[in-house]
Model the fold of this input.
Amino acid sequence: MPVDVEVQPPASEPAVRTRSVALDAVCAAAVDVARDAALELAGADGLGEHLGVEAEDDRVATHRFAAKARGYLGWEWSVTVARASRAKNVTVDEVYLLPGAGALLAPPWVPYAERLRPGDLGPGDILPVPPDDDRLEPGWTGGVEALEDDGEPELQVGELAWELGLARNRVLSLTGLDDAADRWLNGPGGPQSALAEAAPGECVSCGFLVRLGGLLGQAFGVCANEHSPSDGHVVTMDHGCGAHSEGGEILSLAAAPPVVLDSMGYDSLGDVVLADVVPADVVEEIDEIDEASEPTDVIDEAGEPADEEPEAGESDDEEPAAPVAVDEPDGSATDDSLGHG
Done:
């Protein structure tokens, strides 16, 4: 049977009344008193001009002076003065150095345990893991406590754990597993990287994928392809790259057409002036070599070029000389002498 329940509205909190504080005229006029107090700490070279005065409470005001010390850009010296009721003299309450608007400040304090970032650990560095790290939990329990009451040494428990495959005292907790999965999923080995979006296939169908053991093996593996950018790294099942085992076909080199080389033609480079592309001293050396390699004419005694003698076997274009008459020896007769007696 339903029961009607009357819900009372929560009681409203009483309103907090605030009132504006008027600046005391005597405290506001005590600029010199505040400056003398600031000079004792800042020194003459570290104190600048008066920046203003603000009311803190009844008959209490704070004067601000610019700080000129090195390394304190934008800082201000604050001097708080006050006076008693019906008193005409002010007294100095405190003097302190505070950062102003746009002051140069040190970065926020970070505890030493939180300063280490991924990639900072180098060779020889030791990073102790606290015993209460929430990423880890005991690998096995009950052995040490059960044997301590009987006086048995703890070494026997460690040997037994090693034989049973429980050599690790601590293993990943659910928190550690979740942190690792989130980090790998959103990292370069995840499905949202540029490499995975342009891949021909996913890692779940690649023959080079080695699945992880345990719970993480359902969604993660390690790439074992040496030609992949993800070789040796953890990747998600829906990651991918161009080195997928079933990503494409290998083209045969035998089907490629033979290479044709044009050995008869030449490339026209246009009208190229040698002096524009070669230094002047090199051009002079080339001209000297060309002049030395040109053939020289043989000059005879008259100062004219002499004709070169034809080589053996060459025919001469000039007409052959006329035959020369030869006297016959004594006792021989010619046709004319026999005819004319």
